[in-house]
Automatic annotation (TrEMBL):
Record-given protein name: THO complex subunit 1
BP-aspect Gene Ontology terms: mRNA export from nucleus
Region feature Disordered, mapped onto this chain: 195-221
Biased composition (Basic and acidic residues): 195-205
Pfam families: efThoc1 (PF11957)
Length: 369
């Protein structure tokens, strides 16, 4: 008799649950599933597992029939309600999401992920968090592997922001517990002065009236003169600073610190004296960002010498560099786990960092005003 009941639940009931699921979707109500769940014989766990499988079968059929994303999301929403009512296992909505995202093209995955983002409060609730956090993390990592970092930048960013909202700051999977730096993040720029187009060569080209290439500045677009010449020497110092941002421990070495200090003072002096390009336009862009308009995106820094003038006069670019300074200073001053006991700042270094931090905020305020 027991064997017969188990066989009935496993073989016959999926069809019963599948019918009830279809009916629930049409009526946009979970009542048909609740009725079926209460009428079918068997233990609660057996019935839950059977209903979970019925959901997956319905999702599979919808995918095969190329149903719109709205239909798939309706099934997942039904599964969420089923968990709340206690007729599904808590992991069911996440399993369904995984099935859907694995089978759909990226343009449709974007729509599904919008649903995932909107329900972050649901995923963080006590009912779902423990059961679903690993599913969501795996799902997001699988999506990131499918996406191009250069072509799907916004989508990749949305996934990272979702994970940041989902997991608490104490979540170990998102922590750099050993305080390691990404030393592979090397910024490549022209290190051969003989190949440089800055300085005298650049001036001669403009005087000869050569055509301005796309992306370069014309004479009428040049910002107000800066007291420090924009030559190869400044270009080299500016981009050399990225190596210190990449690996801050260099600042604890005397020779490296002197170099960093010298380069930083010159770069910050340029920021102070170099006029921002079209302040009103920058304000307008900032307002658009606040209202959800245009995205400001910087790829891995573009280090072409031809762009130097434009970059120095771009307020968004300037803020990126200033933020790097603040992050670096925070590391140098902070008590960081796994930091060597030999990494200690002198009083003179601490004072310089304090003064320079104020200067960075001052320059940053000018950039946004």
């Amino acid at each position: 008799m027991l064997r017969y009941l188990i066989s009935y639940v496993i073989v016959i009931c999926p069809s019963c649950y599948k019918t009830s699921t279809r009916e629930a979707l049409i009526n946009k109500s979970i009542k048909p599933l609740l009725t079926a769940f209460n009428q079918v014989p068997g233990s609660e766990n057996e019935k839950k597992c059977t209903l979970d499988q019925a959901f997956r079968v319905v999702v599979e059929e919808e995918i095969i029939n190329k149903a719109p994303c709205e239909n798939l999301l309706a099934i997942i929403s039904l599964a969420i309600n089923g968990v709340t009512e206690g007729i599904c296992t808590a992991s069911t909505p996440f399993v369904l999401l995984g099935d859907v995202l694995d089978c759909l093209p990226l343009d449709q995955c974007d729509k599904i992920f919008t649903f995932v983002e909107k329900n972050v409060a649901t995923w963080k609730s006590n009912t779902f968090y423990s059961a679903g956090k690993n599913y969501l993390l795996r799902m997001c990592n699988d999506l990131l592997r499918r996406l191009s970092k250069s072509q799907n930048t916004v989508f990749c960013g949305r996934i990272q922001l979702f994970l940041a909202r989902l997991f608490p700051l104490s979540e170990k999977s998102g922590l750099n517990l050993q305080s390691q730096f990404n030393l592979e993040n090397v910024t490549v720029f022209n290190t051969n002065e003989h190949e440089s187009t800055l300085g005298q060569k650049h001036t001669e080209e403009r005087e000869e009236g050569m055509d301005v290439e796309e992306g370069e500045m014309g004479d009428d677009e040049a910002p107000t003169n800066c007291s420090i010449p924009i030559d190869y020497n400044l270009y080299r110092k500016f981009w050399s600073l990225q190596d210190y941002f990449r690996n801050p421990v260099q600042c604890y070495e005397k020779v490296s610190w002197k170099t960093f200090l010298k380069y930083s003072e010159e770069v910050l002096a340029v920021f102070k004296s170099y006029k921002l390009d079209d302040t009103q336009a920058s304000r307008k862009k900032l307002e658009e960002l606040k209202t959800g308009g245009e995205h400001v995106y910087f790829a891995k820094f573009l280090t072409s010498e031809k762009l130097m003038d434009l970059q120095l006069s771009d307020s968004n670019f300037r803020r990126h560099i200033l933020l790097q300074y603040l992050i670096l200073f925070q590391y140098l001053k902070g008590q960081v786990k796994f930091k060597s006991s030999n990494y200690v700042l002198t009083d003179e270094q601490s004072l310089w960092i304090e003064d320079t931090t104020k200067a960075v905020y001052q320059v940053g305020t000018v950039s946004t005003s």
